[in-house]
Amino acid sequence: MLQKLGFQPGINKQLSETGAEGQWTGCDNARFRYGVPEKIGGWNQLGGLNQNELTGAGRGLHHFINTLSRKYAIIGTNRILYAFSGGVFYDIHPIESTTSLTSAFSTTNGSPTVTITYSSSHGLTPGDIILMSGFSTITGSNYSASDFNDKKFMVTTTPTGTTITITMASNESGSGATTSGGITIKKYYTVGPAVQAQGFGYGLGSWGGEDGSAFTTTLNGALGNNANGTGGSGSSITLASTANFPDSGTNFILVGTEEISYTGVSGNNITGITRAVRGTTRAAHSDGATVTSTTNYVAWGEAASGDLVLEPGMWSLDNFGDKAICLIHDSAVFEWDSSLSNATNTRATIISGAPTASRHMVVSTPDRHLVFFGTETTIGDTSTQDAMFIRFSDQEDINTYVPTATNTAGTQRLADGSQIMGAIRGRDAIYVWTDTALFTQRFVGQPFTFAFAQVGTNCGLAGQNACVEVDGAAYWMSENGFFRYAGRLESLPCLVEDFVYDSINLSSGNQMISAGLNNLYGEVTWFYPTTGSSVVNRQVTYNYFDSSPQRPVWTVGSLARTMWKDSAIFGLPHATEYDASTDTSFDVVGNTEGRTSYYEHETGTDQNRNGTITAITSNIESGDFDITQARSSTGQQTGVATFKGDGEFLMKIRRFVPDFISQTGTTRITLQLKNYPNSSQASSPLGPFDITSSTTKIDTRARARAISLKIENTGTSQSWRLGTFRLDTQPDGRR
User: Fold this and answer.
1) Where does 239-380 show beta strands of DSSP type E?
2) pLDDT tens figures, 489-543
3) How far apart, in whole angstroms, are the C-alpha atoms of residue 363 and residue 333?
4) Per the structure, how many domains does the chain have?
5) Buried b / exposed e along 685-700 (16+ C-beta atoms within 10 A)
6) How far, in Å, are 12, 541, 543, 556 from residue 623 at the CA level?
7) Which one of 409, 457, 502, 596 is CB 3.0 to 4.6 Å from 58, fit for a cystine?
8) Residues 37 and 105 in one domain
9) 51-60, 585-594, 624-633, 704-713, range with the lowest pLDDT
10) Is 726 helix (H, G, I), strand (E, B) or coil?
11) pLDDT level of residue 287 (50, 70, 90 thresholds)
């Protein structure tokens, strides 16, 4: 007899597969809508041909419409600030300094390295961005002036205080280049590293090493100046020997001055590598170079690990009318006027009179104050930066911050916590989080301007971007759970909490956490890195449309986005994705910081990257269900099967009837069989069966005590939304 299989919406990973009977236990790229699961929508990469790979990791995203009805996305990576409009990316990054040089340019035959000599200290570090111009004639070289003029370069090394090197895309094939006339070099403001790391430096670790286990070997193959392993590709490095090298968890090796992390050992290969970690700089290393295991060892005079956290390069982005307001984390704030006729050909400039070192920034509306958090007590003196101090501008004046009797500028210091972690603008207040508490900041007018109130304790924010607000409710992630505030503080019940917090990389990844709102589907998603990963690689999503205190609806998945913005401005959500394994970018020569892709989401069924369409693998899996025989009111067996069994009976499966509310392409269904909770899946599982919209039923034969259901699709142009699944089965004895 056919019977309906009913499942509660949401994923439950707090229970075992057997304990989660009648529930879903895992998924990827799936969501719940109206109580049933479906595949998420696709995404399409934005940006014109050969102009869609941004330099560095996306660390800030803001959308706005100016008074001329032009739509802008401001995207801040850890290296460059971009404006996106009309399908084109524009470099609007502020310039910190300009230097003019004469005949300060040299090359070497057979090498891509160019050395530039300054007449005085350059103040640059590897990874900084410079813009070059003024080249006229280059002799003795295959390079031409067009290879340098109006081109951005990433500084490769700084051999001395007056010399830097850059890396060209091809080797020098001449006798050595010389230039005529002068050249101009513009230095971009430095934002920060692509990833978060523990701090290093003298005095932070044990003097002379943490232990005596300095295992050494040599490289078996060269390492290039890129993100790859030996042989110029992949994520593994071949060593002469891996004897005594740790083989589990996150571990580290030192090659030259570059430290590299790895997560596994296979033969003489270390696998899962990440180049240039712990604040070191990527470099090329020759075959046979010495390799030292540094997981638990630091030699005399070398940097040692400590509790200091080196936060990634972050942005706070907002708009004050037509002006984009752009704050570099723990640094200066800039404005970019979108109303100018040549706006996309102009750069952001520093806001005069504003604080020069702040952790975070928000534009308060409708009262129109610019508010800084974790800022200076004395404007212009970075040594006075106080992580708990708030300063706000005069009303309608982003250049005035000193309070007087006739303006609304002012300050406030919060009391609960050690640092302000983040802030967002809500419907009727600004929400301000420290590492331990939540405050509201409400405009009340003169003489106080803002009223501050503590509304939550033991609910601090995990990272700057780990919060969103929708319809008067704030949602956020702390280091000890998920919370909601809408007039009162609530801890969100979460049936995937252990799964998330047991794997999240909070020690070196809390500032990498970012929250995103998808109001069309009632979803708040947190993107986070897992243990052993320095980049975002997982997500957890809360559905506030379908959730109730008794039945919270959560999903998990592998969608990796560094920043997310809802559909209010562009009609569809936009998001950034960071790939640290490739150095490709359309605008920076010698990029070693990886690249960011910018996507429009909820488009079609597939992912479109650089014009290449590939499938989105989507799946969902249920807990185990078993069978018993129903009984009458007098206790007699009726012969009717019920799926709320106790596992005593085996069951015989004869057929099932698939049902999808909507389906395109082919959806795969597997019935996974077990005889006991801890036993492995049966050798003859039911499926996979490929189901189309015309499939009426599937006939099959199998026997098991417990069955779980898995739905997935792996091809392009495929989507699904589950209806009612019916299964024909009956009890079949006890053994």
Assistant:
1) 251-255, 258-262, 264-266, 269-271, 290-293, 304-310, 315-320, 323-328, 333-337, 349-350, 360-364, 369-373
2) 999 999 999 999 999 998 767 899 999 999 999 999 999 999 989 899 999 999 9
3) 12
4) 2
5) bbbebebeeebeebee
6) 9, 19, 20, 15
7) 596
8) no
9) 624-633
10) strand
11) confident
Tell me what the pLDDT averaged over the chain comes to: 89
| Boundary residue ending a domain (159, 188, 217) | 188
How far is residue 330's CA from residue 335's CA, in Å, rounded to a whole number?
Answer: 16
Token readout for 272 is: 């899962």
Question: 658 lies in a domain?
Answer: yes
Average pLDDT over residues 71-100: 97
Same domain, 35 and 134: no
For residues 626 and 724, membership in a common domain is answered with: yes
Which 8-state DSSP code applies to residue 397?
B
* Least confident span in 12-26, 122-136, 283-297, 311-325: 283-297
CA 346-352-357 angle, to 5 degrees, is: 100
Residue 679 located in a structural domain: yes
DSSP state of 42: -
Q: pLDDT tens for residues 303-313?
A: 444 445 678 89
**Residues 433 and 422: beta-carbon distance below 8 Å:** yes
Residue type, 454: Q
- 633 and 722, same domain (yes or no): yes
The answer to whether residue 707 is domain-embedded is: yes
Tokens of 328: 């570099």
Same domain, 33 and 113: no
Q: Are 566 and 131 in contact (CB under 8 A)?
A: no
Predicted confidence (pLDDT) at residue 207 exceeds the cutoff of 50 = no
Sort strands 2-5 and 725-731 into parallel, antiparallel or unpaired: antiparallel
Q: Are residues 36 and 99 in the same domain?
A: no
Range of the domain at 132: 95-188
CB 226 within 8 A of CB 217: no
Token couple for 503: 């794997």
Q: CATH number, domain at 147? A: 2.40.30.20
Last residue in a domain, options 137, 163, 188: 188
Percent of the chain with pLDDT over 70: 91
Residues 535, 554: Cα–Cα separation, whole Å = 23
3-state DSSP assignment of residue 388: coil
Same domain assignment for residues 133 and 36: no
Only one residue has tokens 């002469």, namely 240
CATH number assigned to the domain comprising residue 725 = 2.60.120
Full-model pTM: 0.85
Q: Is residue 330 part of a domain?
A: no
